[in-house]
Amino acid sequence: MESFLSDLLASAEVQAFASGFPTMLLHLAATLGLLVLGAIIYVALTPWKEIELIREGNAAAAVAFAGVLVGLAVPLAVSLTASTSLREIGLWGLATVVIQLLAFRVVDMILTGLPQRIREGEVSAAVLLVGAKLATALILAAALSA
Questions:
Q1: Would you call 125 exposed, middle or buried from its count of C-beta atoms within 10 A (0-12, 13-18, 19+)?
Q2: In terms of C-beta density within 10 A (0-12 exposed, 13-18 middle, 19 or more buried), how is residue 99 classed?
Q3: Which of 11, 29, 31 is CA-nearest to residue 21?
Q4: Is residue 5 predicted with pLDDT exceeding 80?
Q5: How far apart are CA 72 and CA 46, in angstroms?
Q6: Confidence of residue 133 (pLDDT cuts 50, 70, 90)
Q7: Would you say the pTM of this structure is higher than 0.70?
Q8: H-type helices in 83-122, by residue range?
Q9: C-alpha angle 43-25-102 in degrees, rounded to nearest 5
Q10: Which has fewest Cβ within 10 Å: 27, 40, 41, 144?
Q11: How large a percentage of the chain has pLDDT more than 70?
Q12: Sign (positive or negative) of CA dihedral 105, 107, 112, 114
């Protein structure tokens, strides 16, 4: 049994896991940190207060904020797959968050009247906003992988 265990621990697969797992956790933490940072900045920039509205039970605000999280996560996930170091993840991730937040603001401005409609709980307005933000996220993700 001891021989089997030592052979298993010495195997290339286990050694690769042992050396790669901490790196994966570090890359994951960096990317999740960028996601949280992007969400915090987005909340600070929007004319409505999503978290407060969500706590009050506003489904439209919850849908809109979920779209923001997914919209940020999609290009961050692509930048994570395209990056080979923590520095690259930071650079590409930060660039992704900035571009996506700018795109979100443009979408918010183009779709005028949506902030008030979301404050009033109009889910259809939130769904349209999420669609626009996800479309932006997918295009940005494709640009990152090109």
A1: buried
A2: middle
A3: 29
A4: no
A5: 15
A6: confident
A7: yes
A8: 86-110, 114-119
A9: 25
A10: 40
A11: 99
A12: negative
Express each pLDDT in 18-76 by its tens digit.
888 999 999 999 999 999 999 999 888 887 788 999 999 999 999 999 999 999 999 99
Q: From 101, 93, 96, select the one nearest 27 (Cα to Cα).
A: 93
For every residue of 17-80, DSSP letters joined together read HHHHHHHHHHHHHHHHHHHHHHHHHHHHHSSS-HHHHHHTT-HHHHHHHHHHHHHHHHHHHHHH
The torsion defined by the Cα of 49, 36, 100 and 134, in degrees rounded to 10, comes to -80
| Cβ atoms 93, 76 nearer than 8 A | yes
Q: Which amino acid makes up residue 68?
A: V
Reference 36, options 86, 94, 115, 104; nearest CA is 94
Contact present, 102 and 37 (Cβ < 8 Å): no
